[in-house]
TrEMBL record:
Residues 28-144 form the Response regulatory domain. Coiled coil: none annotated. This is Stage 0 sporulation protein A homolog. The modification 4-aspartylphosphate is found at residue 77. Signal peptide: none annotated. It comes from Pelotomaculum isophthalicicum JI. Residues 184-316 form the GGDEF domain. The chain holds residues 97 to 412 of 712 of the full protein. It comes from the Bacteria. May play the central regulatory role in sporulation. It may be an element of the effector pathway responsible for the activation of sporulation genes in response to nutritional stress. Spo0A may act in concert with spo0H (a sigma factor) to control the expression of some genes that are critical to the sporulation process. The lineage of its organism: Bacteria, Bacillati, Bacillota, Clostridia, Eubacteriales.
Length: 316
């Protein structure tokens, strides 16, 4: 699977020279279906609607992806080899991490009895193939925003679409717990824009906001879908890189640094070109007994060093 591969070439998408950044996907959806063609079609259709999509071909692949990736909604096919969609649904509902994640069935099983069975299990919606794209997207978006309202959860930062600091810290705690079982190193990288205050001072707050959105889009376009990107402070973003050692993280961040430096940012108010770089500090979690606070502290100290020694730099 492309987004679980670990070489730097596979982690970084190849569109470094791309001039126009995509919008930040505001919502993330996992689609589980054994039919590759249907998966590709849904992926293509939903991506056009600015939804971030990750797909899995069966239940075990889905569970592997869900170790790190936290979608806003899950879509399940019912008839699949191995664990079928109904069984996977029951498993996810008894796992506290996905208990409240909306789950839709998307299936060609369309008899009233089958629909009733799915709904009785507690599915959040039941959609029959072939589906209408507009209809599916409307259902997804309505369900996600309703869930967020109900829980009063500030999961995402409204300006940039990245995860809130609180949510990011929850994900970090999960990853620390995972480490005690699997002993796979992971990294946290804090990315802080250099002299960002000058952008506000010279071009105004609106342009500053625009730059923050562009930076978030850039990060989304470069990191893996299974990496968690949060807004840590005003112009400070933080990324959680599962199954990544310090050297790999360094190479990834270094490539990001150099790609961002070359990226033209044209603000839409006076069409001025904004020049801005970022610095990054990396913390590695590689030993039992470490804490969330320690890894953040290590990344912070590295960031401080990057700033002190000239900015536009990545420090390990
Ligand atoms: P350094 O290279 O040391 O990081 O310098 P800096 O200017 O980037 O850092 P500093 O902490 O001095 O300034 C950060 C600025 O970010 C100050 C604050 O007004 C601005 N800021 C924070 N949140 C937002 C926001 O949501 N929108 C805008 N436009 N500006 C913001
Ligand atoms: Mg199927
Ligand atoms: Mg800064
Ligand atoms: Mg800062």
């Amino acid at each position: 699977r492309a987004n679980l591969l670990k070489t730097v070439e596979d982690i970084i998408s190849p569109d470094e020279q791309e001039q126009k950044l995509p919008e930040v996907p505001r919502k993330e959806v996992l689609i589980v279906d054994d039919d590759t063609a249907i998966r590709q079609f849904i992926k293509q259709e939903l991506s056009k609607k600015n939804l971030g999509i990750v797909d899995a071909g069966d239940a075990s692949e889905a569970k592997k992806i869900l170790e790190h990736y936290r979608p806003d909604l899950i879509i399940l096919d019912i008839v699949m080899p191995g664990t079928n969609g109904l069984e996977l649904f029951k498993e996810l509902r008894t796992d506290h991490r996905y208990k409240w994640t909306p789950i839709f069935f998307l299936t060609s099983k369309s008899s009233p009895m089958e629909i009733v069975e799915g709904i009785k299990l507690g599915a959040d919606d039941y959609i029959i193939k072939p589906f209408n794209t507009e209809d599916l997207v409307a259902r997804i978006e309505a369900k996600i925003s309703r869930m967020e309202e109900l829980h009063g959860l500030a999961v995402r930062d409204p300006l940039t679409g990245t995860f809130s600091r609180g949510y990011f810290m929850e994900r970090l705690t999960e990853e620390v717990e995972r480490f005690s079982r699997h002993k796979k190193s992971f990294c946290v990288a804090i990315c802080d824009l250099d002299f960002f205050k000058k952008v506000n001072d010279e071009h105004g707050h609106q342009v500053g906001d625009f730059v923050l959105q562009q930076f978030a889009s850039f990060l989304y376009s470069k990191f893996r879908r299974t990496d968690t990107i949060g807004r840590y402070g005003g112009e400070e973003f933080v990324a959680l890189l599962p199954d990544t050692d310090a050297l790999t993280a360094y190479k990834i961040l270094e490539r990001l640094r150099s790609a961002w430096e070359k990226m033209p940012i044209i603000e839409p108010y006076q069409n001025k070109n904004i020049q801005i770089t970022f610095s990054s500090g990396i913390g590695e979690f590689d030993k039992d007994g470490k804490t969330e606070q320690e890894i953040i502290k290590a990344a912070d100290a590295a960031l401080y060093l990057a700033k002190e020694t000239g900015r536009n730099k990545v420090v390990l």
